Amino acid sequence: MNTFMAELVGTMLLILLGDGVVAAVVLNKTKAQNSGWMVITTGWALGVAMGVYAVGRISGAHLNPAITLAMAVTGKFSWRAVPSYLAAQFLGGFLGAVVVWLAYLAHWPATEDQSAKLGVFSTAPAIRNLPMNLVTEIIGTFVLMFGVLAIGANSAPTQSGLAPLLVGFLVWSIGLSLGAPTGYAINPARDLGPRIAHALLPIAGKGGSDWSYAWVPVVGPVIGGLLGAVAYAQIFGS
User: What is the pTM of this model?
Assistant: First the structure.
Protein backbone atom coordinates (compact mmCIF):
# COMPACT_ATOMS: atom_id res chain seq x y z
CA MET A 1 0.00 0.00 0.00
CA ASN A 2 1.42 3.38 -0.99
CA THR A 3 1.07 6.56 1.02
CA PHE A 4 -1.85 7.83 -1.09
CA MET A 5 -3.90 4.71 -0.42
CA ALA A 6 -2.85 4.72 3.22
CA GLU A 7 -4.07 8.27 3.78
CA LEU A 8 -7.26 7.55 1.85
CA VAL A 9 -8.04 4.38 3.82
CA GLY A 10 -7.08 5.91 7.17
CA THR A 11 -9.21 9.02 6.63
CA MET A 12 -12.07 6.93 5.29
CA LEU A 13 -11.98 4.76 8.42
CA LEU A 14 -11.84 7.84 10.65
CA ILE A 15 -14.90 9.37 8.97
CA LEU A 16 -16.78 6.08 8.82
CA LEU A 17 -16.51 5.64 12.58
CA GLY A 18 -16.83 9.36 13.41
CA ASP A 19 -19.77 10.27 11.20
CA GLY A 20 -21.20 6.85 12.01
CA VAL A 21 -21.46 7.61 15.71
CA VAL A 22 -23.11 10.96 14.95
CA ALA A 23 -25.66 9.16 12.77
CA ALA A 24 -26.32 6.68 15.57
CA VAL A 25 -27.05 9.48 18.03
CA VAL A 26 -29.03 11.99 15.93
CA LEU A 27 -31.01 9.94 13.42
CA ASN A 28 -34.43 8.63 14.34
CA LYS A 29 -35.13 5.02 15.33
CA THR A 30 -31.52 3.93 15.83
CA LYS A 31 -30.69 1.95 18.97
CA ALA A 32 -28.35 4.76 20.08
CA GLN A 33 -30.66 7.70 19.42
CA ASN A 34 -30.25 10.58 21.89
CA SER A 35 -27.33 8.88 23.68
CA GLY A 36 -25.54 12.22 23.82
CA TRP A 37 -22.34 14.18 23.46
CA MET A 38 -20.20 11.76 25.46
CA VAL A 39 -21.01 8.97 23.01
CA ILE A 40 -20.21 11.21 20.03
CA THR A 41 -16.87 12.40 21.40
CA THR A 42 -15.90 8.87 22.39
CA GLY A 43 -16.79 7.51 18.96
CA TRP A 44 -14.73 10.20 17.24
CA ALA A 45 -11.76 9.56 19.54
CA LEU A 46 -11.80 5.84 18.83
CA GLY A 47 -12.26 6.52 15.12
CA VAL A 48 -9.13 8.67 15.06
CA ALA A 49 -7.16 6.07 17.02
CA MET A 50 -8.24 3.27 14.68
CA GLY A 51 -7.36 5.31 11.61
CA VAL A 52 -3.90 6.08 12.95
CA TYR A 53 -3.31 2.47 13.98
CA ALA A 54 -4.39 1.26 10.54
CA VAL A 55 -1.97 3.27 8.41
CA GLY A 56 0.52 5.02 10.67
CA ARG A 57 3.36 2.70 9.72
CA ILE A 58 2.81 3.46 6.02
CA SER A 59 2.09 7.17 5.70
CA GLY A 60 2.54 8.54 9.20
CA ALA A 61 -1.26 8.80 9.40
CA HIS A 62 -1.73 12.54 9.00
CA LEU A 63 -5.40 11.98 8.03
CA ASN A 64 -5.84 15.74 8.22
CA PRO A 65 -4.86 18.46 5.72
CA ALA A 66 -4.18 20.87 8.58
CA ILE A 67 -1.51 18.53 9.95
CA THR A 68 -0.01 17.88 6.52
CA LEU A 69 0.22 21.60 5.69
CA ALA A 70 1.60 22.54 9.11
CA MET A 71 4.26 19.84 8.87
CA ALA A 72 5.25 21.04 5.40
CA VAL A 73 5.39 24.72 6.38
CA THR A 74 7.63 23.96 9.36
CA GLY A 75 9.95 21.77 7.29
CA LYS A 76 8.96 18.45 8.83
CA PHE A 77 7.31 17.11 5.66
CA SER A 78 8.12 17.31 1.96
CA TRP A 79 6.07 19.75 -0.10
CA ARG A 80 6.29 17.30 -3.00
CA ALA A 81 4.07 14.86 -1.10
CA VAL A 82 1.50 17.44 0.00
CA PRO A 83 -0.83 17.31 -3.08
CA SER A 84 -1.21 13.52 -2.94
CA TYR A 85 -1.79 13.56 0.82
CA LEU A 86 -4.45 16.26 0.58
CA ALA A 87 -6.21 14.54 -2.32
CA ALA A 88 -6.24 11.24 -0.45
CA GLN A 89 -7.57 12.83 2.74
CA PHE A 90 -10.43 14.69 1.07
CA LEU A 91 -11.36 11.66 -1.05
CA GLY A 92 -11.21 9.41 2.00
CA GLY A 93 -13.48 11.80 3.90
CA PHE A 94 -15.98 11.75 1.05
CA LEU A 95 -15.97 7.96 0.73
CA GLY A 96 -16.28 7.41 4.46
CA ALA A 97 -19.38 9.60 4.50
CA VAL A 98 -20.89 7.66 1.59
CA VAL A 99 -20.49 4.40 3.52
CA VAL A 100 -22.18 5.97 6.57
CA TRP A 101 -25.07 6.99 4.34
CA LEU A 102 -25.39 3.38 3.16
CA ALA A 103 -25.14 1.97 6.68
CA TYR A 104 -28.01 4.16 7.88
CA LEU A 105 -30.03 4.05 4.68
CA ALA A 106 -33.30 3.14 6.39
CA HIS A 107 -33.02 6.01 8.88
CA TRP A 108 -32.86 9.01 6.54
CA PRO A 109 -36.55 8.91 5.57
CA ALA A 110 -37.45 8.35 9.24
CA THR A 111 -35.65 11.58 10.26
CA GLU A 112 -37.45 14.83 9.48
CA ASP A 113 -34.88 17.20 11.00
CA GLN A 114 -32.75 18.52 8.13
CA SER A 115 -30.10 19.91 10.48
CA ALA A 116 -29.70 16.48 12.08
CA LYS A 117 -29.11 14.93 8.66
CA LEU A 118 -26.52 17.56 7.77
CA GLY A 119 -24.96 17.16 11.22
CA VAL A 120 -24.11 13.55 10.42
CA PHE A 121 -21.85 14.77 7.63
CA SER A 122 -20.49 18.13 8.70
CA THR A 123 -20.17 20.53 11.61
CA ALA A 124 -22.35 23.48 12.53
CA PRO A 125 -22.00 26.06 15.30
CA ALA A 126 -24.21 26.07 18.36
CA ILE A 127 -24.28 29.89 18.14
CA ARG A 128 -23.66 31.18 14.63
CA ASN A 129 -21.00 33.87 14.89
CA LEU A 130 -18.50 33.23 12.13
CA PRO A 131 -15.52 35.18 13.55
CA MET A 132 -15.87 33.47 16.93
CA ASN A 133 -16.58 30.11 15.30
CA LEU A 134 -13.34 30.55 13.39
CA VAL A 135 -11.45 31.33 16.60
CA THR A 136 -12.85 28.19 18.24
CA GLU A 137 -11.66 26.02 15.36
CA ILE A 138 -8.25 27.68 15.45
CA ILE A 139 -7.89 27.00 19.18
CA GLY A 140 -9.02 23.38 18.89
CA THR A 141 -6.65 22.60 16.03
CA PHE A 142 -3.80 24.44 17.75
CA VAL A 143 -4.21 22.05 20.69
CA LEU A 144 -4.44 19.07 18.32
CA MET A 145 -1.24 19.97 16.44
CA PHE A 146 0.70 20.89 19.58
CA GLY A 147 -0.44 17.69 21.27
CA VAL A 148 0.37 15.42 18.32
CA LEU A 149 3.90 16.83 18.15
CA ALA A 150 4.31 16.43 21.91
CA ILE A 151 3.18 12.80 21.79
CA GLY A 152 5.47 12.08 18.84
CA ALA A 153 8.46 13.61 20.63
CA ASN A 154 8.24 10.99 23.36
CA SER A 155 9.87 7.73 22.35
CA ALA A 156 8.06 5.54 24.89
CA PRO A 157 4.53 5.82 23.40
CA THR A 158 5.89 5.28 19.89
CA GLN A 159 7.92 2.23 20.83
CA SER A 160 5.13 0.72 22.89
CA GLY A 161 2.49 1.27 20.20
CA LEU A 162 0.42 3.57 22.39
CA ALA A 163 0.90 6.74 20.35
CA PRO A 164 -2.25 6.29 18.19
CA LEU A 165 -4.34 5.65 21.29
CA LEU A 166 -2.94 8.78 22.92
CA VAL A 167 -3.81 10.79 19.82
CA GLY A 168 -7.34 9.42 20.16
CA PHE A 169 -7.40 10.52 23.80
CA LEU A 170 -6.22 13.96 22.69
CA VAL A 171 -9.10 14.24 20.21
CA TRP A 172 -11.48 13.01 22.92
CA SER A 173 -10.27 15.71 25.28
CA ILE A 174 -10.60 18.41 22.62
CA GLY A 175 -14.13 17.27 21.85
CA LEU A 176 -15.19 17.31 25.48
CA SER A 177 -13.49 20.59 26.40
CA LEU A 178 -13.50 22.69 23.23
CA GLY A 179 -15.84 20.97 20.80
CA ALA A 180 -19.25 22.14 21.94
CA PRO A 181 -19.29 25.62 20.29
CA THR A 182 -18.72 24.38 16.72
CA GLY A 183 -18.80 20.59 16.73
CA TYR A 184 -14.97 20.57 16.48
CA ALA A 185 -14.06 19.86 12.89
CA ILE A 186 -10.32 20.41 13.62
CA ASN A 187 -9.78 18.76 10.23
CA PRO A 188 -10.75 20.20 6.82
CA ALA A 189 -11.17 16.73 5.29
CA ARG A 190 -13.45 15.71 8.13
CA ASP A 191 -15.88 18.49 7.22
CA LEU A 192 -15.52 19.33 3.54
CA GLY A 193 -15.39 15.78 2.15
CA PRO A 194 -18.56 14.66 3.94
CA ARG A 195 -20.28 18.00 3.24
CA ILE A 196 -19.75 17.38 -0.48
CA ALA A 197 -21.16 13.87 0.02
CA HIS A 198 -24.23 15.39 1.68
CA ALA A 199 -24.71 17.70 -1.28
CA LEU A 200 -24.42 14.89 -3.84
CA LEU A 201 -26.13 11.92 -2.19
CA PRO A 202 -29.89 11.28 -2.70
CA ILE A 203 -30.80 11.79 0.97
CA ALA A 204 -34.55 12.08 1.47
CA GLY A 205 -35.56 15.58 2.62
CA LYS A 206 -31.99 16.62 3.30
CA GLY A 207 -32.14 20.39 2.75
CA GLY A 208 -29.11 22.54 1.97
CA SER A 209 -25.47 21.84 2.81
CA ASP A 210 -24.81 25.23 4.50
CA TRP A 211 -22.01 26.34 2.18
CA SER A 212 -21.93 29.78 3.78
CA TYR A 213 -20.37 28.18 6.87
CA ALA A 214 -18.23 25.59 5.05
CA TRP A 215 -15.11 27.79 4.91
CA VAL A 216 -14.84 28.02 8.72
CA PRO A 217 -13.99 24.33 9.36
CA VAL A 218 -11.44 24.51 6.54
CA VAL A 219 -9.68 27.80 7.22
CA GLY A 220 -9.78 27.57 11.02
CA PRO A 221 -8.02 24.20 11.25
CA VAL A 222 -5.37 25.22 8.72
CA ILE A 223 -4.53 28.34 10.74
CA GLY A 224 -4.68 26.51 14.05
CA GLY A 225 -2.50 23.65 12.84
CA LEU A 226 0.15 26.02 11.56
CA LEU A 227 0.15 28.06 14.78
CA GLY A 228 0.37 24.89 16.87
CA ALA A 229 3.36 23.59 14.92
CA VAL A 230 5.17 26.93 15.06
CA ALA A 231 4.49 27.33 18.77
CA TYR A 232 5.79 23.86 19.54
CA ALA A 233 8.97 24.50 17.53
CA GLN A 234 9.54 27.85 19.23
CA ILE A 235 9.00 26.49 22.73
CA PHE A 236 10.86 23.20 22.42
CA GLY A 237 13.20 23.95 19.54
CA SER A 238 12.23 21.03 17.37
Answer: 0.96
